[in-house]
Amino acid sequence: MLLEESLWEKLPQWKIAVNLAESFVARGSFSDLSFQAFSTTNSPVIHLGTGKERGSEVAESPLYLVASLTKPVVAMAVLIAIQEGLFSLNERIHHFLPGWNKGEKRSITIRNLLSHTSGLPDQLSDNLEMRNAHASLNQFYQGILEVSLDYPPGTQAVYQSMGFVVLQKLMEKVTGVPLREYIHQKIFAPLEMTNSYLGFANDDQVEELLKQIAPIDIPEYLQGNAGDWNSEYWLKLGAPWGGMLSTPADMLKFCLSSLACHSLEQTTVISAAMIDEASQNQLLFFESMNSRDQTYRPWGLGWRHNWKSHRETFGDLLSGETIGHWGATGCVMWVDLSLERACVICSTSPTAESRVCLIRLSNAIHAAMEEVDDFSENDTEFGNKIRQHIVRNDDGL
Questions:
Q1: Tally of domains in the chain
Q2: Domain that holds residue 313
Q3: Which of 86, 108, 176, 375 is the most exposed place for a label (fewest CB within 10 A)?
């Protein structure tokens, strides 16, 4: 066992968190559940499953459809492009894309799209029909061009997945390369996220990769509302609002890249100043924004703040400034920039079914982090080893 992993194994609260996860799997709340955390050092990757037959063989360390955990990754790609001087947050999208220089759409900015304040809908009204017809991402984009805004930009913050389709089109227009390729070059490769994909560029790898994906357990009542997350069409599409495939270990690398900007000796792909901007409550910067959203429903750039009284809080023990995101397929990740902690939980039970269990598990994992910090501070020899040499684990971090 690696140095940093052995620290977590000594902690009573970590054992409580693992036992809690095991109890969730045993009682059928999850057929597949995996998580990893960071506080001072990486925890072991915990992977649990019932092993029941679901029509396909799942790899020992599966890929998960992480749904809307995709959005902070796409947002980081946009922020990298801003650092490179390709555009700026307050530029209007009609300066780059035809069809947007009309009516209220004329005022939509890149900041609006990243902070869910554009007025665009979450999904198109014929979303399910388009998925059933295996629509291309360009067809989704053309549909967005035709819709009316739900509210004037900058006056409300309402979740808008379709804004990320527009961001993809913007990025590809400005960079001249597919978004998936840009993300691989700027994020996946430098962070060594070797098990992360936004669609498949190489058809030769598709068949083998599809075998590694843990299928989502879609309850019957969601079958007609969520679309078929397990279809080859959806897994290959690479939807910029929710089509990424990854693992907890890879997503933790992504989270730690934000912490690395400030003090950790880890690889980063973005500046500390940009992370500070991305994690700020962006709703404070819109003069016409309603006070309820500004105060109780804050958004950063791609990141959501921890809404303490909301049913999708990231955890009861986390501050309201903690940033993170939920994924509808049963995933959640969060980053506490001030305490330098992060956690990623992936499962195959849709959030509509598993939300309460995921929050409880997040609470237990966070409590273990308190013990990690106490242990490393009190055990001088061990703490010095950790601080002097961040050992890279088997997953590359």
A1: 1
A2: 65-347
A3: 176
